[in-house]
Every structure is written in C-alpha cells, then in structure tokens.
Amino acid sequence: MDNRNRAKRIVNMALQSSPPPSSSTSTNEDFSSDHSSYHPQQNVEISTELEDSEDNEERRDPEGPVGNLGEINHPDSDEPVKGRKRVRNFDRWAKNIRKRKRTAGQEYRNVRGSIVPAKVFTPVVCSCRFKCSEQVSSENQEAIHVMFYQLTSWDAQTTWLCSAIMTLEPKRRKQRQNAQNPSRINYVRQFMLLDKRVCKSFFLKVIQISNKRLDYALRNKKSVSGIAERDKRGQHVPANKLSDEKLNWIKDHINSFPKFVSHYGERRSTRKYLRPDLSMNKMYELFKAKCESEGKPILKKSAYVKVFTTEFNIHFYIPKADTCKTCDILEIAVKAEEDIETCLAIRVQKDQHIKLAGEVRNILNDCKSKVKTEESLLVATFDLERTLPLLYLNTGEVYYLRQLQMLNFGIHAYTKEGEKVLMNMWPEHCGARGSQEIMSSLHYFLEDFLEVKSLCFFSDCCSGQNRNWNVLHFMIFLVNKSPYLESITMHYLVSGHTYLPNDTDFSFISRELKKKTDIYTPEDWMKLVRDCRKQKPFTVRDMKNKFLDYESLTTLFKDYQIVLREGAKISKMRKIKFCKGSSIISYNDDYTETYETVDLKPNDMDSGTFFCNLKNYIPEKAPETRLISYQKMQDIRKTLKFVPPIHHQFYLTLPHVPRRGGNQEAQDDVNFLPAVFGDD
C-alpha cells in the first residue's frame, strides 16, 4: 500500500503543478482542458467506471451529437432563455470523442477507419541493471498504468510525465584530445516510478506510450519551474472572428424591432414574435441599409443569422393551435388538487370536454359523407381570416406604422358536385368584422344555392361575429324567406378546438404571400387569392358596396332580454335548428338529438303577422364607407412615398376623421395587433 500511496502522491503533484485552465473563450480546443476527471483524493484502484463513461455518452438521446440549445439571458427574467437553434457542441464531435478515447487509453476508430485497440495492461519483465521488475511489482505497475489513463486530459498526462522524469546535467565529461566533434550530450534523464529509478524501456512499457509522445512532453518542459507548458493547439483566436463591438451591432438591430408575446402555447415560454410579414432576408437587408447609412462595414449574412438563431428566441409567426381555456383550467386544477376523488372528478370533466369537441367533428364528417348522396343538402363551414395589411411592402419603415387592413371571410361548401370555396373580401373602410358583414356574405353565398332544402353550418363560437342574436334572427329570416329551404342547422365548435377546413384554405394564401413582394390595392389582394391555389382555384367576391344592413331585422323578434329571462342563454347553445314556418328554435349544448326550445316571436304578435313581416322584410343597403381614425390616416400618408403615384388617389381619398379630437366612433375596430397575430 505504501507504493500505491506514493503513486497517488505523484499524481497529486502533477495535478497541483499543472497550470490552471486557460481563460480563453475559444471553443475550438483540440484537446480537452478538463482536469476534473481525476481528483487528488481519487483512489487509483482499477475501475470500470472510466471504460463505461464514453459508452454511456454514446447511448444518450440522438440529439446529443448535434449539440445542446444555446442559452441567453432573458431581459425580463433571471432564468436562462434558450435560443431557437442549437449551437455547436464541440465535445460531441467525432474527432474530439476520438481524441478523448485515445487519451483515456480506450479503443477507438482512427481517421482511416481502422480500429485501434485499447491500452490493456500486461506485466512488464525487465532484466536491466536497475532491476526494474523487482523494484516495481506487477500490482504497482498496474496501479500506475490505470492512474495514468485516468488522467483523461492531455495536459495532465504531460505534466505527470514531466514530474516523473528528472533531467540532470552529466556529472562528468570525458575530455577528448584533438576531437573534431565534441560531445553533444548536455543532459541525462532519470525515469522514476514510486521513487525508484527505472530504465526508459520499462517506463514506456508500463505506461504504454511511444518515445515520440515522451519527447513531445519533455520538449515543452520549462527549465526553471520544471512544469510542461500547456498545450496551445486550438487556442488561437481566428483572424476573421467578429469583435464584440460588431456583434453588438447585430444584437442592437434585432432588438430594435418590436416583439410581441403571444397568448398561444405555453405561458412560461420565453419565445417572442415578430410581424409575420418579416423574414430573415428582410431583416438582413434592413441591417445592410443601416450599416451603409452609418458608414459601418457590412457584416456577412451568416453572422447575422447565427446571432439571431443562437442568442434570441424569436420567431416570425404565431403557432396555429390555440390552447383551450377549459383544458388549461382543468389541468391546473388536477395538479393542484390533493383529494383523490376530487381529482378523478376533474379528470372525468376534462375527458367529457374533449369528447364533446370530438362529437362535433364526427358530425361534420358525417354531413360531408351524406352530401355526396343527398342532392338537396348543403354543408358549409365559415370563418374570418386574420386581417391582412393592405400595403404589403418590403420597406422597413412600413413595419412600424399603422396600415389599412384587408378582411377576408371564407366559406367552404360541400355539395354533391364537390367542394367549393368562396372568399368574400373587402377593405377596412368598406366594412367592419361584425355580424352584419357575416350575414351579408352568407346572403350572397346562398343565392348560388337557391334549390337547397337542408343547410348545415359549422363555425367557431366567436360572439361578435357568429354566435349572437343577430345571426339567429337572420337564420329564421332565411329559412322562411327562401322558397325551397326547409331547415337550417347551426353547429358551433367547442372553444379551443375550432380547427376548420377554412384554416387550410387560408394557409394557401399565406404560402402564396411569401412569393409576393409588393401589394398596393384591394384588387392586388383579390388577384393573389384567386391565384394561390392552382387546382380548383378559389372564387373571390368583392364585397365593396354590397353590404346589407340587417339591424332593423331585430325589431321583428322578441327582445333578447326577455329571452334571457326565459332561460335561453346563447352562450350555452352549441347546436341550433331552425325550421320553415316556425319561430321556435331548438337547441342543446351537447350536439345530441335532445333539444330545448325557445320561441323568438314577440309575445304580443300572432304567427300570421310575424311570418308576413318576415317575408316582406327587405334589408336596406349599408353605408358604403366607414371613417378611419385621424392617427391611422397620418400613418397611411407617411407610407405613400413607397407607393407608386398611380395608387395615391385611392389612399388620399379614404374617408377619415378630419382632425384630432373629432368624432372617432368608427375608427380602428380593425387595429394593428389582429393584423399581426390573427383572429381574436
């Protein structure tokens, strides 16, 4: 044991005399500088832990070799923020794994593909004059061998080699007379193992290293301190490395763009979003323009992209899937509840909610199947797309100004002949995004299907557009006004689970938009929508000056306050049936065939008068224009310098509030944020 303690003291001395790790921030080290793989108090007994370490690393998840996600400091939180892209992990590179295995004496595959066997200890027998085999037993030889390869750092092994070899001047020199070549021996080396002098051959065989490896270690040994210099390979700073000042130019430019936190996805997510009409190419072009204007050298795009993807968690779009409020609340309640029975009851409630969301989808699929055989049946889904900026330009200044918006109401119809998609489009100053615009679009849509007897509608449950008393009154008006229509069934999808075929239709527009550079007028938008799908192109209807005012239709029905007192809450209605010749609607909240009913005919009016009023009702034409705010008009005027003069007249004649503080009743119900983040 005394000999083994001496071996440990040699190792401790090597580690304590080893220089500290370099303060260089370069990540291009060819060899690991981690000295922590061997602790001064670590036992030198033979262990399989080291042999298994690399195998364990290789059995990790497949993302390991690619690298871990980069982390940055989030300005609003002390927690690290992960970048959107993985950064290079040099430790997992094949060549660095090969170096570590070679240094640790493990089996590895060299660059030629050949297998290099592991360093397996074999007892060394030596019959030299130093009697090495007698001085260092086979057990101690094995302990030294294992100890050396537990020093998995190249620098630590080099330091140990230097500490185990004494370099001395010759004690005496033989003076030769008339010698043309004097002696070139300036030093002698003594090899020590466990404080015992051994021969060089024995020393090399115990550790199983080559003479070249030994000479390399001793060549860099400092004469004064006796410590080997640290391996400098891979430590230089690249000549083309960007300075911190230039990297800050990129960071400052990225931070200059307004970012938004979405209500989509995880609430604790540090991800932020830029406007969806921005892109990496656009941002880099703006960065180049800024550098040129400030007289700075233009940095490469690769540097800009690297900083953006590794040091910022920013994306250009909003996730498609909206989280369900009910699912979130119930999930939090389950985690917070300690009582098992209550927890199970909450889980049952959540399962029922998810099942309910699936029921209406099954109904939609059944209706799509029936329509193939029933000629008198029409099935349609409808939804309002996110607002679209009317001016779609690449100019950076436009991204910071309020713009006029374009609205698109999509209707996806299923008939016996096939599927038809109608896009009803209008600019913001011609109509809002309320129930009046929805009813007008449905009115013109049904003019193409006059002979339909049964109509099934599916939509989300947005109260401002689809699920309100105005729409219910309109459905009763339709079914009684049409000479052929006999019934209408409305299905409102469960909130949070409202993905419709219209979302797929809108995705064609989004993809086509990426190919466009400049859009100036509503006609440009309509042409884009017509051309975005090559097979079965969309039908586009310009709704300008076509909106109808159904506001007065409400006066023909029972006041909704009275209906509420009778127990009919529209927020609880998921499936509603309207039949010809009846003022009674049937509804439920579970999509079954069990209904509750409510009569929407005024209590003081007989049925004959009520239906006569419905048949004689003719909606008035809605106002052709709406006022936009003074502030938005000012921003629109600022953008005209980027618009061809031929289109200036359209923008300069927009109806708007003439001055600050004026009547702004009709302003900005279509505002900036919906244009960026989609529907409410």
From TrEMBL:
Stretches assigned to coiled coil: none
Q: Which residues form the signal peptide?
A: none
Per UniProt, the ranges with Basic and acidic residues bias are: 73-85
Give the species. Answer: Parnassius mnemosyne (clouded apollo)
Membrane-spanning parts: none
Top-level taxon: Eukaryota
Q: Pfam families from the entry?
A: DUF7869
**Per its record, how is this protein called by name?**
DUF7869 domain-containing protein
Limits of the DUF7869 domain:
454-545
Q: What InterPro entries does the annotation carry?
A: DUF7869
Q: Where is this region: Disordered?
A: 1-85
Q: Which PANTHER family match?
A: DNA-DIRECTED RNA POLYMERASES I, II, AND III SUBUNIT RPABC2 (PTHR10773), PTHR10773:SF19
